[in-house]
Amino acid sequence: MARTKNRPHYNVTFAVLVLGVGAYALLQSMIVPVLPTLIEHLHTSQSTATWLMTGYLLSASVATPILGRIGDKVGKERMLIATLLALTLGSALAGLSNSIGLMIVARVIQGLGGGVLPLAFGIIRDEFPAEKVRGAVGTTAALTAVGGGIGLILAGPITNHMDYHWLFWLPMIMTGIATVATFLFVPESPVRTPGRISWTAAGLLSAWLVALLLAVSEGPSWGWGSARVLGLFAATVVFVALWILVELRSAEPLIDMRMMRIPAVWTANLVALLFGVGMYTTMTFLPQLVQTPAKLAGYGFSASVTQSGLYMLPMTVAMFLLGTWTGRLSARYGSKAVLVAGSFVTVVPFVLLAVDHSRTWELYLSSTLLGIGLGLAFSSMSAIVVEAVPAEQTGVASGMNANIRTIGGAVGSAIGASILASGVTATHPFPQDSGYTDVFWMLTAGGVLAAVASLLIPTVRRTPRMVAAGDSKDNRQADMNEASLNG
Prior knowledge:
The chain is mainly α. The chain folds into 2 domains: 10-197 and 254-456, MFS general substrate transporter like domains (Growth Hormone, Chain: A); 198-253. Helices cover 79% and strands 0% of the residues. The chain has 22 helices and no strands. The protein has helices at residues 10-29, 35-41, 46-49, 51-74, 76-96, 100-111, 116-127, 130-161, 166-185, 199-222, 227-249, 257-260, 263-291, 294-297, 305-311, 313-333, 335-355, 360-388, 394-421, 433-455, 464-468, 473-486. It is globular, with a radius of gyration of 22 Å.
């Protein structure tokens, strides 16, 4: 793509994207450690309050790939503005709400912000010099994980010194500024996918995602063998089959099944699923573990919401540092090598926590190692997908990768909740310590599978045509696609 003099410098564009992605990442996790506070202030029950997460999750899962695809067709800058407006509106509504029903509606609107990530990846690929794409994609991908960690850290101080409404006011201010800045400084997307949107495929994609995530989210409370959960799983299978059939027969598919079969894409998506299990489950249950009152439960650290966030600080810092370095590491060693290294590093903290999680230093060490592994893996994983697909499919491919991470997080959190709930009784309202041990062993198994899956990702090698062409962006991309298709 030839850049013109009136197009903003790519670093200006990147700063705007970082602001929008950061606000979305904060909203993913900020309410997790303060759910008890929200239950009290909104006069609701635990089961109803969980819909603050479930509603957000369902909305994001549907919006992420669809908005990414629409952006590929009508323009990523336009869709980014629309997505940021939805985030701003949802945050404003949540900040104004004093009832659980209105706040759940606001969280569903916020979930539309899931489209920020694939749109940002697409804009980076369109606007950045070829040699800068890996680093920018890696930093942006790492920011989603870093933002989640920062959200856990900030939640306590915000609710203690301000008001729980500021959990939404602060991201609203960020997304409001990002919306205006996008209009002013993010150039119109030069890469478009011709044709119409397949709304039938979009409906079927939405149907199976909602059915699957609703089943895994509510399985612990409804019962995994209940008619509702089994019916939702059955509906998921039916809707997936219909969706694939429609996509295969469509001349203009919403999600190209040929693209999804590219070895680099499907293996990276498998790794994303397993990493979603590890990251989101840890962010959900590690704060819960350290907040457990030791005198009543016989384990735990009796930490406040603010103190529990500090246990996540090493993970957040490590993710940020490694995320910003991953681009240079990938350029030198290859994205696959960096992902493999991150995958194997991530196994270690889960083993440490499974063996013993009764001392403070063990949690800090595990948090640091987990941040290193996630920082390496998340950034390189996203770069692999972006590099493997044609430019016009960047949005939908990266959107599906992000969505699959979300599905992994929902599945992991649901399984973890079921394991912990099995030890809760009327006389002992806290999970058994052995339940946390079982959760960490489950995450260890998921980490090992992720490491094995990362080894399956094909390596893209420099070909004579790439060298002769001086690594031009178009020729380099053609060779990457060819290498990915050939496995």
